Amino acid sequence: MDQPENALFRLKATHVAERLKLQELKDLVTHPIRDFSNYEMAVEFGESSYAFIYNYGSVVFFNVPDDLQEVYLKMIRETKYGAKIGDTNEVFYVEIRREIAPSTNQVYFDRIATGHISFSKIKIISMLVAESTALEYYDILIENLLEQASVYTKRLELEGKFIDSKEDLLKFVGMCLSAKQDIISNLYIVDSPDETWESPELDKVFHELKLMLEIDVRYRAVEYKAKIIQESIEVITDLVKTKREHMLEMTVILLIAFEVISGLLRH
Q: How deeply is 39 buried, as exposed, middle or buried, from its count of CB atoms within 10 A (0-12, 13-18, 19+)?
């Protein structure tokens, strides 16, 4: 692609769904598809203008007008699996500076400055920002579940019970298990893409931006919170199991007592 002397490109990432069927979306897209796999679909709108759609529910628009973004987001929302919370968004910038050497990149918290841009470099940057946006989504989701779990534990401390009905418990356990399954299936620490294996420049971009966005640290934090949720579920189910066992024991004792009393009355 032709390189302008100086330019600033806006990248906007949105986590819009729990899961996306890329093959289903592929049949709806009217613009040229630059790349396609089970994990990612790249749509090309024009020179240095792309949308990257990921199967775990994130979409990245690179240098795409807002109105066109809305068209695609609307189309995606009509085919998505329902999200448990609202969208999460992140804006990032790619800056071309003529005074920077073509193979040099300067990574900052909200942008990357480079002397040269390519589709492969845009693809790597978009992939990492998409992952960052998904991490934010699941961090909020887990925080909401932790807050609900704390309500149950506080009620247990003060009142000696934590739910009003079995349905409340089942609903909470279902939400926790679903969230954990989504995290396991949708989030993982991104491996180095194929493009980095043959390009030291792209490999450097990948690792420096991944470090700047704290992908590994944030992933481990979400994983740790998910573990706390799992432990909360185990405690609650153990309490319910213990309560049920006590009820069964009491029922057996009452039945035996009833038989003894009936026998005595018959004699």
A: exposed
Give the range of the structural domain holding residue 118, as residue numbers without chain letter: 7-123
CATH number for the domain harbouring residue 93: 3.30.310
Residue 129 domain flag: no
The pLDDT value recorded for residue 70 is: 94
- CA torsion angle 81 83 87 88 (round to 10): -100
| Residues 113 and 12 reside in one and the same domain | yes
Instruction: Judge contact between 94 and 157, C-beta under 8 A.
Output: no
Question: 3-class SS at 260?
Answer: helix
What tokens were used for 201? 């420049």
- Which residues does the chain have with pLDDT short of 50? 257-258, 260
Choosing from 99, 123, 147, the residue where a domain stops is 123
Helix, strand, or coil (residue 93): strand
Burial of 257 (0-12, 13-18, 19+ CB in 10 A): exposed
**What pLDDT was estimated at residue 258?**
46
| Model pTM score | 0.81
Q: Work out the widest C-alpha separation in the chain, in whole angstroms.
A: 107
Helix, strand and coil content of the chain, in percent to the nearest 5, comes to: 55, 20, 25
